[in-house]
Design brief:
This protein is of the alpha/beta class. The protein is built from eleven helices and 13 strands. Strand 5, helix 5 and strand 6 form a beta-alpha-beta unit. It binds nicotinamide-adenine-dinucleotide and 2'deoxy-thymidine-5'-diphospho-alpha-D-glucose.
Length: 334
């Protein structure tokens, strides 16, 4: 099998390739990545020399390049995106270019070359926010994106579904909650907290900190994608979430401080994110029942392992930390 993985130098894409090469050593993977500020070749060092892996630096919006690569592909696994909500508030245009036009470009090429499967990696943010107490997102929840990032991902989902209904392109989609784990950029909440503490800084909590996310260990996500590609039904969407209990941002900060043996006085409240979604929660019954997926990694164990990874892998995050804090100087969340 020949896979084209887009965005394989990012957080989830690099974890996906690492998992896939180990599990399917006879498959070929081409990783197409533009190496934006979020793409790190250092996230691929441990597998980059494998014979069945090839890196191509390029933009998913480049029609010729994408056509040439998809010509030799059986399955596309599409991760590449501008993925950070705070950046989308500052500069929405690049989100529309990559997340919408880039996805459409890939869909066109996939159709032309009759590929076997186009898997789109999407987000629960397309559904908007939930009240603090109440139900969860399901596959039937209407789309209601509230940030430029979420709106661009929603457009990509709609396009992918349109290519299934209109042209019969074998599309599957996963909408997933907040991932955490190794190789996540230091601009995101959990790695930002850990690396702030490791550099003597405070944890920065937006607003009142009573915002709830559904935390999923990245390897559980990657296994879900594997199952959907293998056994998911064409044209179907699967929601994937990890939390066995709901924890707000402030509680997560305190868990991390406890594990790192630091006092609660390291918590600093900063300006809130505009349009900040209050709560995300996912009902994963469909993928659990139909594909037998379940999360294997509990938050309490894997948050500790994630902290341990950042403690041991300063070589990976120290060079990128300055850039992410520069962003927060602009948003005044410092
Ligand atoms: P990331 O920001 O860590 O990585 C994105 C990667 O895409 C980077 O390597 C970047 O260089 C590459 N890229 C960006 N624009 C590109 C372009 N025009 N052409 C080629 N490559 C480009 O993102 P992530 O957190 O790994 O997220 C991966 C996917 O999963 C995204 O589609 C995101 O929307 C989705 N998702 C993420 C989460 C999460 O918690 N991180 C949750 C649900 C869904
Ligand atoms: O839900 C899935 C989404 O999760 C993905 O689609 C996105 O790509 C991914 O970035 C993530 O979006 P969030 O906006 O939820 O993640 P982020 O890590 O930016 O923030 C998580 C929560 O923590 C959110 O409520 C904002 C808050 N936060 C974030 C940072 C960086 C803080 O309180 N302080 C911080 O320093």
């Amino acid at each position: 099998m020949r896979l084209l993985v887009t965005g394989g130098c990012g957080f989830i894409g690099s974890n996906f390739i690492r998992y896939w090469l180990k599990k399917y050593p006879d498959h070929q993977i081409v990783n197409l990545d533009k190496l934006t500020y979020a793409g790190h070749l250092s996230s691929t060092f441990d597998f980059s020399k494998q014979k069945n892996y090839r890196f191509v630096k390029g933009d998913i919006c480049n029609r010729k390049l994408v056509n040439d690569l998809i010509k030799e592909t059986d399955i596309v696994v599409h991760f590449a995106a501008e993925s950070h909500v705070d950046r989308s508030i500052l500069d929405p245009l690049v989100f529309v270019k990559t997340n919408v036009l880039g996805t459409q470009n890939l869909l066109d090429a996939a159709l032309k070359h009759k590929i076997k499967r186009f898997h789109l990696v999407s987000t629960d943010e397309v559904f908007g926010e939930l009240p603090l107490h109440g139900g969860k997102f399901t596959e039937q929840t209407p789309y209601n994106p509230r940030s430029p990032y979420a709106a661009s991902k929603a457009a990509a989902d709609h396009l992918a579904r349109a290519y299934f209904y209109t042209y019969g392109l074998p599309v599957t989609i996963t909408n997933t909650s907040n991932n955490y784990g190794p190789y996540q950029d230091t601009e995101k909440f959990i790695p930002r907290m850990i690396t702030n503490l490791l550099t003597g800084e405070n944890i920065k909590i937006y607003g009142d900190g009573k915002y709830v996310r559904d935390w999923l260990y990245v390897e559980d996500h990657v296994r879900a994608i594997d199952l959907v590609i293998k056994s998911g039904e064409e044209g179907e969407t699967y929601l994937v979430g990890g939390s066995d209990r709901e924890i707000n941002n402030l509680e997560i900060a305190k868990i991390i401080l406890r594990i790192m043996n630091l006092p609660d006085s390291k918590i600093q409240f900063v300006k809130d994110r505009p349009g900040h979604d209050r709560r995300y929660a996912i009902d994963s019954s469909k993928i659990r029942k139909q594909l037998n997926w379940e999360p294997l990694f509990s938050f309490d164990d894997y948050i500790a392992k994630t902290i341990d990874w950042y403690e041991k892998n300063r070589w990976w995050w120290e060079p990128i930390k300055k850039k992410s804090e520069k962003l927060y100087k602009k948003t005044m969340q410092i």
